[in-house]
Amino acid sequence: MKAAIIVFPGSNRERDAGTAIHTVTGHEPAYVWHAETALPAGTDLVVLPGGFSYGDYLRCGAIAARAGVMDAVRAHAARGGLVLAICNGFQIACEAGLLPGVLMRNVNRRFICKRQFLTVERADTAFTRRYRQGEAIEVCIAHGEGNYVADAETLKRLEGENLVAFRYCDARGQVTDAANPNGSANGIAGIYSPGLNVLGMMPHPENFVDDLVGGTDGRGLFESLAKAA
Amino acid sequence: MIPNTPKITPELVAEHGLKPDEYERFLQLIGREPTITELGIVSAMWNEHCSYKSSRLHLRGLPTKAPWVIQGPGENAGVIDIGDGLAVVFKMESHNHPSFIEPYQGAATGVGGILRDVFTMGARPIAALNFLRFGDPSHPRTRHLVAGVVAGIGGYGNSFGVPTVGGSVGFHTRYDGNILVNAMAVGLAKSDEIFYAAASGLNMPIVYLGSKTGRDGIHGATMASAEFGEGSEEKRPTVQVGDPFAEKLLLEACLELMQTGSVIAIQDMGAAGLTCSAVEMGAKGNLGVELNLDAVPCREEGMSAYEMMLSESQERMLMVLDPAKREVAEAVFRKWGLDFAVVGHTTDTLRFVVKHGGEVMADLPIKELGDEAPIYDRPHLPTAKKPVIDAASVAPPSSNAQALLKLVGSPDLCSKRWVYEQYDTLILGNSVATPGGDAGIVRVLEGPKGLAMTTDVTPRYCEADPFEGGKQAVAEAWRNLSAVGARPLALTDNLNFGNPERPEIMGQFVGCLKGISAACTALDFPVVSGNVSLYNETNGRGILPTPTIGGVGLLDDVSVHATIAFRKAGEVILLIGETTGWLGQSVYLRDVCGREEGAPPPVDLETERRNGDFVRGLIRAGRAKTVHDLSDGGLAVALAEMAMASGIGATIDKLPEGDAHAVLFGEDQARYVLSVEPGQADAIRIDAEKAGVPILRLGVTGGDTLAIKGEDPVTIAALEKAHEDWLPAFMAGEA
Q: What's the whole-number mean pLDDT along residues B322-350?
């Protein structure tokens, strides 16, 4: 698998993603500076990592979405190439038109970092084949603006076309309001593009690949990708 | 040569915080009336914050050396060797006054400043901690200050991308008008690639790096060296505004720059900005410095020399550049979109010369400004000893079960989840233990080593007996590191006190330092960096003396460590250390009985060391995986915390001799609670007796209740409710 992690000024979980890819798959990803205009030849997977691109002083992800390298990322996605957009990467993907909707301020108006359970909504995609459908996995969230919002028609389409990837849930896998940390519509923690090749998610699977550090429930995602790519 | 400036009047001198005798000393030094720029420069260099003029004399007594210390106090941060060619760089610093005036930006820039101190030395920050003290919860500003400070710490650290792995939050009415915000950063570097501030080489270019200079924070350090009175809120323009995005870029650019071999010396611009950094680089390197302010990147037009020299705009650095590497160095900064400007050069004159618009605005002797600032031996009055409280004379006002529920839900001992969930504790993927335990733990690179870190002090002990309190602060940090299995290596201190011109405050300072020194020596736990914050007073009332200790320890194998949570039912619970039932200055006496009285628990450093070494040995041998040190609230609170952390209860059928309330809530030092496999318990007891370490089998883990012999059982659910509810309710305005 050839992975390329895009580094924007203000990205700060790019190494976490790189370490997870290396730890789980054995492959060393390339780090691609935002000002580049092309991806490394043969890139299978593009990662838009977490962080505060350009400080997130404007709408989160709005400036990064217009970076030079994003045309190449869009072309990669249009060819069916895999894109994993985590946290700030999810915000960037929405701003770049790769995914619908937007991430708003958490309902409690505070940054939240904590362990968080998610349900795996479908286990037949390039990102989730190593999980079981309906399984509750424990990873973490770390964001101030992760409240997924989309208009009613978009939500209906996402649900109807089975494009919700993960939902916030409790330890028993129940999707409840109490388990929803940020107010996201329908408890949505992650969504797919219609082609199932772009995944945007607020939680951080890349910080959960090691028993000593939190746990290993994030490994399945990288194992799935290694198999798919 | 020096253009005419506003007439320097006694009022103007006083406004700059210089005492008449200090100004007189300055006049004699330069032999003429200073320019306004020079007055600004000397006020910045000779204020308490930058010069340590009241404290330096006493700081000299601190133990600062050990075979593993690479750099002790005096640089941007301390540096210790952890083997494998790696070094740990760390320091703690206060941002108390700015945070009281503007809590979000004050706290944010406090974090920014300490991160910069660490990466200036070539280290990538791998963890942050903090130590916060607020006024009484009932004070009208407390809620606003908590909200702002916590958001500010999170806002800066989260965006910069460093995990906050530990800290302390407490409340006391003595911080009503003067909160404490102490921020600590820990970084990792190669031990042979440490960068220092001392300039070297003649006619070497001095380069300005980072963000542009604006009018923010002018005279911040002078403000931080004065007492607060009515109207302090109006000082808001002296608080800087933080830009964690710029700092993240500066970090990456600096670390990349250091790899090019172009950096001869580097110093961040913190308090007193360009003035302090330029003077320190020159003074430490025995060189003069000439600055040309026309080249300084400015955010606003028309800034005067005075403003540029005193601006505390954030995210800036000054470095001495190897001229042969200029192009490659500049390219790094252009790539990251940061300013890179040659603003001066080193000279052999030992003068600090500042030019602006072709004119000399300042021409001062650099050594006297930097190394040879005034030093005072201020009168100090020892604190009178307090009587030892006889536990039998303290009548329990409620059942011990009720007292326990009250304590675990009290402002000081309640869960700080509301706070630490606003900090990114997991970024960088090496957080092995996050807030809520005895110490934070991060893995070093891919392992197997790990670092443990903690921030501690018990201010009420320091107030009652500065010497014992100083010892206890160091001992508690050492104990917290030992309780996770780490070998304590070194500490940074952040000495927060009131007005040093009052002999009783100076007495607290001197007493605490003596206690700190004694403990550092006895525990082989040297001071490698620190910060002094004096004048923490409002309207003539000082804070509790608060010498915060930030300790760092090493785990040879990070996978072998202990946590506070009970692991499973059926384990044997052991108490290490001697229990006398010491209630003086305990939180039980204060929060349950309403008495803030007596002598604090004495710290026997030999016992401390013997007990701690024994516990650490058990952890490192894999014989104890659940360990908690005993501190505020004593044995009962420790057991409750271990039960809440795991959801597993305990049955305690044996307690040390003495009155139950004193034994359960007394705060005797050098104690730990362990839970171990039943098969291990006897062997551990025999080993403890051989080592001269008091040990007592208390009971076993299991069930959903904390059931202590002779007391009403308390369910974990009830403990958790009390523990978790207070802070969120308080912040929502419901408590």
A: 95
Residue B6's pLDDT band, with cuts at 50, 70 and 90, is: confident
Q: What whole-number distance in Å separates Cα of residue B221 and Cα of residue B165? A: 28
- A 10 A CB-CB count for B67 gives 6
3-state secondary structure of B524: coil
Contact B43, B18 (CB under 8 A): yes
The one-letter amino acid at B348 = D
d(CA B708, CA B698): 9
Residues 13-52 of A with CB under 8 A from B: 13, 15-16, 19-20, 50-52
CB contact under 8 A, B426 and A207: yes
Phi then psi for A151, rounded to 5 degrees? -70, 165
Min Cα–Cα distance to chain A from B151, Å: 8
Distance between CA atoms of residues B274 and B318, nearest Å: 8
- Model pLDDT, residue B230: 55
Summarised one tens digit per residue, pLDDT across range B13-60 is 998 889 999 999 999 999 999 999 999 999 999 988 888 999 999 999
Residue B259 touches chain A, beta carbons under 8 Å:
no
Whether A142 sits inside 8 A of B426 (CB atoms) is: yes
d(CA B323, CA B630): 56
Q: Chain-centre distance of CA B221, in angstroms?
A: 18
More confident site: B4 or A147 = A147
Q: How far apart are CA B447 and CA B84, in angstroms?
A: 11
CB B509 within 8 A of CB B546: no
pLDDT of residue B270: 83
For chain B, percent helix, then strand, then coil, each to nearest 5?
Answer: 40, 25, 40
Contacts for A181 with CB less than 8 Å, ≥ 6 apart: A106, A112, A114, A116, A141, A146, A168
- Distance from C-alpha of B280 to C-alpha of B278, rounded to nearest angstrom: 6
Closest partner CB to B426 (pick from A10, A15, A214): A214
Residue ranges of B 276-315 with Cβ closer than 8 A to chain A? none
Q: Which domains does chain A have, with CATH numbers?
A: 3-228 (3.40.50.880)
pLDDT tens profile B180-198: 999 999 999 999 999 999 9
pLDDT at residue number B5 = 67
| Of A183, A111, A142, nearest in space to B151 by CA | A111
B50-87 pLDDT, tens digit each = 889 999 999 999 999 999 999 999 999 999 999 999 99
Preceding omega of B448 cis (within 30 degrees of 0): yes
A9·B161 Cβ contact <8 A? no
Token pair, residue B639, equals 């057991």
User: If pLDDT is split at 50, 70 and 90, which confidence band does B374 have?
Assistant: confident
Query: What is the overall mean pLDDT for chain B?
Result: 94
- Judging contacts by C-beta atoms under 8 Å, the chain A residues touching residue B246 are 55
Sheet holding B487-496, edge to edge: B431-433, B440-443, B450-456, B546-555, B487-496, B527-533
CA distance B503 to B500: 7
Question: pTM for this one?
Answer: 0.96
Helices (H) and strands (E) in chain A, counts: 5, 11
Cα separation, B392 vs B525, in Å, equals 37
Catalytic residues of B: 49, 95
In the predicted structure, residue B603 carries a pLDDT above the cut 60: yes
Does A216 contact chain B (CB < 8 Å)? no
Residue B369 binned pLDDT confidence (cut-offs 50, 70, 90): confident
Tell me if B576 sits within 8 A of B694, measured CB to CB.
Answer: yes
User: Which of B146, B250, B427 to mutate to test binding with chain A, by most A CBs within 10 Å of its CB?
Assistant: B427
Q: Is A22 a catalytic residue?
A: no
